[in-house]
Amino acid sequence: MRICVIGAGYVGLVSAACFAEMGNRVVCVERDGSRVARLARGEAPIYEPGLEALLKAHLASGQLSFSQHLATGIERAEIVFIAVGTPSGEDGSADLSHVLAVADELGERLQQACLVVDKSTVPVGTAERVAQRINARLGQRGKGFKVVVASNPEFLKEGSAIDDFMRPDRVLIGCDEPAGSELLRRLYAPFLRNHERLLCMSVRAAEFSKYAANAFLATKISFINEMAGLCARQGVDIEEVRRGIGSDKRIGTHFIYAGCGYGGSCFPKDVRALIRAAEQEGIEPGILRAVEARNALQKTLLFQALREHFSGHLHGRVVALWGLAFKPGTDDLREAPSLVLLDALLAAGVVVQACDPVATAAVAARYAPAVASAQLRLSESLYSVAEGADAVVLVTEWKQFRQPDFVRIRGSMRMPVLFDGRNIYDAKQLAQLGFLYRGIGRPALGQAREHAA
Ligand SMILES: NC(=O)c1ccc[n+]([C@@H]2O[C@H](COP(=O)([O-])OP(=O)(O)OC[C@H]3O[C@@H](n4cnc5c(N)ncnc54)[C@H](O)[C@@H]3O)[C@@H](O)[C@H]2O)c1
């Protein structure tokens, strides 16, 4: 099929590359010219495992190309995907300006009937608005056709996006016209050997389902984080409780890990957008408000723990941060818990030595003054940032942080203190090695023994 994907971000780029991999002819349209230039050279502008290899392969095969011009991208396209950003507006609702601008331009430039598909996460009723705007302009231009707009929300996870897209848990197709559903069913057939995972529904139900899914996952995280807070007070280790409840199939093992809060480009903004939608309908979204409030609190816990540990005397301390991206496997910093911690530490006069396998460049750009004054030192090595530190804080649980050489680390730190923001370490083992260990919702263990060297 001939496909156009508008927006070369995490979703647009992965979708375009994976559709090309299945033999479709894809043009990905991106308004940012420098991004298009990099993509045309086969360079991925974002970090996503496996993406660059797919881009290179399909640029070479001619199945995939990039353009800054919508008219080029939609020429003879049978399906046009809208995959531009829908950030939070000032009042928390989804800012649809990018989506609607694309709709207007499609109305101005389309020369043939095609199926338009919202892949961006958009509130209920958006497909109808997009269709109205496109078809009004087509009418003004005297075109004798109309487009149908479907919803196909995306469920990929950054860090495993290619795999998620190639082997989806399910594909949701919201379309009120059978011909549109059929076209999308054919497009996705190679991705779904088990067709029970293709779910067709009304446009509005598909739009709503994406928000409900993210809100539910965020709720699980905030629930376990609230339990963790109570565990810490009652001398219980939340990790034991997690195992104790996760084996119940009705609860499940996923998304019940206590930690320093969720971030990213989806959960925070989608929870906010759903809160706003409920308010607009006159419904009190009590659960969603609590989810958001708990998460905001959770992001402050590591700083509170450090302040308590140093009895309020943080100025001049050296703190090492392990992990900056909002989760492992991505360079995405949007709403990352690390940013809340970094802001608080820098404001308190702490010298921060931070590392991340892929996100340091973005952090350096964001914190240029602190980097220039050497209050923030960035590295890709967890060992170098631990050197001379009064405490290490694990913020993002990258695989390479899971089993470091703690004897070496203890020897290089000023004081062997470890704050585990994701509860990935064996507290007893660290205590035996001479660390003071503190997790989230776990009893503190061990005593920091100063290195005698
Ligand atoms: N990132 C995720 O993990 C994820 C997962 C599922 C769904 N989503 C949803 O998908 C949508 C896109 O998210 P993202 O993370 O890929 O966003 P992103 O910000 O990474 O990418 C959006 C891209 O669209 C481009 N763009 C904006 N307006 C344009 C226009 N008029 N023409 C061409 N390009 C334009 C931007 O320059 C940018 O490169 C959002 O609605 C998001 O909620 C994201």
Strand-helix topology:
Blueprint: E1 2-6, H1 10-21, E2 25-29, H2 33-40, H3 51-61, E3 64-67, H4 70-74, E4 79-82, H5 97-109, E5 115-118, H6 126-140, E6 148-151, H7 161-166, E7 171-174, H8 178-188, E8 198-201, H9 203-233, H10 238-246, H11 267-280, H12 286-298, H13 301-309, E9 318-322, H14 337-347, E10 351-355, H15 360-366, H16 368-372, E11 376-379, H17 382-386, E12 391-394, H18 406-412, E13 417-420, H19 427-432, E14 436-438
Helix pairs in contact: 1-3, 5-6, 9-11, 9-12, 11-12
Residues 6-12, 29-32, 35, 83-86, 98, 101-102, 120-121, 154, 156, 158, 265-266 line the site of nicotinamide-adenine-dinucleotide.
What does this structure look like?
With 453 residues, this protein is an alpha/beta fold. The chain has three domains: 2-201, Rossmann fold (3-Layer(aba) Sandwich); 211-297, N-(1-d-carboxylethyl)-l-norvaline Dehydrogenase, domain 2 (Orthogonal Bundle); 299-438, 3-Layer(aba) Sandwich (Rossmann fold), CATH 3.40.50.720. Helices cover 44% and strands 13% of the residues. The chain contains 19 helices and 14 strands. The strands form three sheets. It has a six-stranded parallel beta sheet, sandwiched between helices. The protein has a six-stranded parallel beta sheet with strand order 11-10-9-12-13-14. Helix 5 (97-109) runs parallel beside helix 6 and helix 9 crosses helix 11. It is elongated, with a radius of gyration of 24 Å. The model has no long low-confidence stretch (mean pLDDT 96). Bound molecules: nicotinamide-adenine-dinucleotide (NAD). Nicotinamide-adenine-dinucleotide binds next to helix 1 and helix 5. It holds the Pfam family UDPG_MGDP_dh_C. Its EC number is 1.1.1.22.
